[in-house]
Amino acid sequence: MRQLYLLAGAADLAIETGDSALTAKLQDLWQDMAGTKTSLTGGVGARYDWEAFGDPYELPADRSYNETCAAIASVHFSWRMALLTGQPRYSDLIERTLYNGFLSGVGLDGRHWLYVNPLHRRARAHERLGDQTATRTEWFRCACCPPNAMRLLASLPHYFATHNAQGFQLHQYATGIYTSGDFTVRVATRYPWEGQITTTIDQAPPGVTSFSLRIPAWCDRFQARFNGTPVDAPAPDGWLTVTSAFTPGDTLVLDLDMPVRFTWPHHRVDALRGMRALERGPLVYCLEAVDQPEDVDLEEIVIDPTAAATVTGAPHLLGGVNTVTLHGRRQRTDDAWWSYRTESQAELPQDEVQLTAVPYGVWGNRGSGAMRVWFPERTEGTD
């Protein structure tokens, strides 16, 4: 956390001074963090000891620390890099962190918190007590996370819009009114549950200028309409840009395709090799034991990424979420005294099972229980 706050300050210095060497070094450090030391949820900090980054690709699911304050510091650093460079990758990571690695730290009641945010919690977890437990608590001995989380939530609009000499850029998507420079834009959307974002210009500078919407890195297909006319504008740089002499009432509608995605880890992440995770839009999903059949142990589950997954609205669950139903198999635990097998030994029997996934950002709000983001995948030929 402290390193990221330091780097946020260094990015402020680079913005003020235009120091190109400092900017290049900050880009290298951010890439090292994002590319080799960040969990799927945007959480950072692999090691409990010293609340520290680990080695490159040291990203365990069950023992990851991922302090809530470190996620906030990541947002601070990434936002300054977005301002410094104009590149959308920094706002991509902000989005991922906000909806997952940060949001999980805040209870739905606004009164219970997670200091650490692992991606795997066993039913009979052996945890450190106090600030290092993965069970929501009302307060901490070191109470940095609750006020830090409230500060970020209070300042969220600050991270949504920017302007420069070329025009106006919208970085994040939520219903509201956003002003930057001479632009004021109204946004209406059900994002992240749905992919349609309707933007209406309330105020624009005179003359021809540009209006840009970030195309999230997770999105492979999208459509856009300006005042009802399809926009034929690819976004190779991560920005969908419309150039016009805008007038109040102009609308730009963006439709982002949101299929369910089964995600692989990088092949160098040893702790996750052979695993898959579930995502939709900007949200990482997880399985909580409370949503599964009573006889299902999450430690025995192998998921089937080739089977169709179904998205269902659940307005009365966890404040109103979309759940994902997926298919897997339950591999019975062997009662032998030895935990290792050879190819000559018979495979353990497996049963088909239907599973329900919820967004990771709202896990742990129904008591303390098992949770997993990463699961072994069923491959062809597995019985």
Per-chain topology:
Elements: H1 2-17, H2 20-36, H3 68-85, H4 89-102, E1 120-121, H5 145-154, E2 161-164, E3 167-170, E4 176-180, E5 183-189, E6 196-203, E7 209-214, E8 222-226, E9 229-230, E10 239-244, E11 251-256, E12 260-263, E13 275-280, E14 283-288, E15 301-303, E16 310-314, E17 321-331, E18 350-359, E19 371-372, E20 375-376
Helix pairs in contact: 1-2, 1-3, 2-3, 3-4
Can you tag this structure with a few keywords?
383 residues; alpha+beta; six-stranded antiparallel sheet; 27% strand; 5 helices; ten-stranded antiparallel sheet; 20 strands; single chain
What does this structure look like?
This protein has 5 helices and 20 strands. The protein has 383 residues and is of the alpha+beta class. Strands 1, 12, 13, 14, 15, 16, 17, 18, 19 and 20 form a 10-stranded antiparallel beta sheet that branches. Strands 4-5-6-11-8-9 form a 6-stranded antiparallel beta sheet, with no helix packed on it. Strand 16 and strand 17 form a beta hairpin. The longest helix has 18 residues. The termini are far apart.
